[in-house]
TrEMBL record:
Protein name (Swiss-Prot/TrEMBL): Response regulator transcription factor
Residues modified as 4-aspartylphosphate: 52
Pfam family, one: Response_reg
PROSITE patterns in alphabetical order: HTH_LUXR_1, HTH_LUXR_2, RESPONSE_REGULATORY
Keyword line: DNA-binding, Phosphoprotein, Transcription, Transcription regulation
Keyword Glycoprotein recorded: no
Domain Response regulatory: 2-122
InterPro entries listed in its UniProt record: CheY-like_superfamily, NreC/VraR/RcsB-like_REC, Sig_transdc_resp-reg_C-effctor, Sig_transdc_resp-reg_receiver, Tscrpt_reg_LuxR_C, WalR-like
Native species: Streptomyces pakalii
Length: 214
């Protein structure tokens, strides 16, 4: 496998080079700064790229931007991104372009040689390799971004009928439950959507708006 490495930390970079070569892979090129990455990838067209997220000169998202740009010009280029810690926005953006041939690992996984090589192999084969902590953070983000995610199926049904303009009695008849149960479900909806009792005059409307927006 021909691999391009982009990592500004010289010790880690050389360690990756040594690890890959000793495992029978070819290191097609190395980059130590953000601006070097894309030209190197376009020139070498490797089987896979291992990139740090934050690279010089600004140590922001140079590695990620290069990965996204490379995948636009080289569709399907397998990319394994390394990061010091979970950066939700970057991980979501990379995966948002299509998860095929994409990996996102925390750097401490590199020290677990077998795990790292296995992840790289899966990515190169078009699969995915996501650090467990990345998965946890992305799922948490998804739950935070979706205000309805915490609702039970029954609470969603109640909210759906509320959105259609039905009163509690009609909702109770539709679901074949008591009005008391409907009142309880609506209270749970208000709580989970963080609509305070002080806003009682508008909570029903705001709950419906949240449902429609979602």
């Amino acid at each position: 496998m021909r691999v391009v490495i982009a990592e500004d930390n010289a010790l880690l970079r050389e360690g990756l080079v040594l690890l890959l070569r000793s495992s029978g892979h070819e290191v097609a090129g190395v980059a130590a700064t953000g601006p070097e990455i894309l030209p190197l990838l376009l020139d070498q067209r490797p089987d896979a790229a291992v990139l740090d997220v934050r690279m010089p000169p600004d140590f922001r998202d140079e590695g990620l931007r290069a990965a996204l740009a490379a995948r636009e010009q080289l569709p399907g280029l397998p990319v394994l991104v390394l990061s010091q810690y979970v950066e939700e926005t970057y991980a979501a953006e990379l995966l948002g372009g299509g998860a095929r041939g994409v990996g996102y690992l925390l750097k401490d996984r590199v020290g677990r040689v077998d795990e790292f090589l296995d992840a790289l192999g899966r990515v190169a084969d078009g699969g995915t390799a996501l650090d467990p902590e990345v998965v946890t953070e992305l799922m948490s983000r998804r739950r935070r971004d979706d205000p309805l995610a915490a609702l039970t199926p029954r609470e969603r049904e109640v909210l759906h009928l509320m959105a259609e303009g039905h009163d509690n009695a009609t909702i109770a008849r539709s679901l074949v439950v008591t009005e008391r149960s409907v009142h309880k479900h609506i209270g749970n909806v208000f709580t989970k959507l963080e609509l305070p009792p002080s806003d009682s005059g508008h909570r029903r409307v705001r709950a419906v708006l949240a449902y429609l927006n979602a």
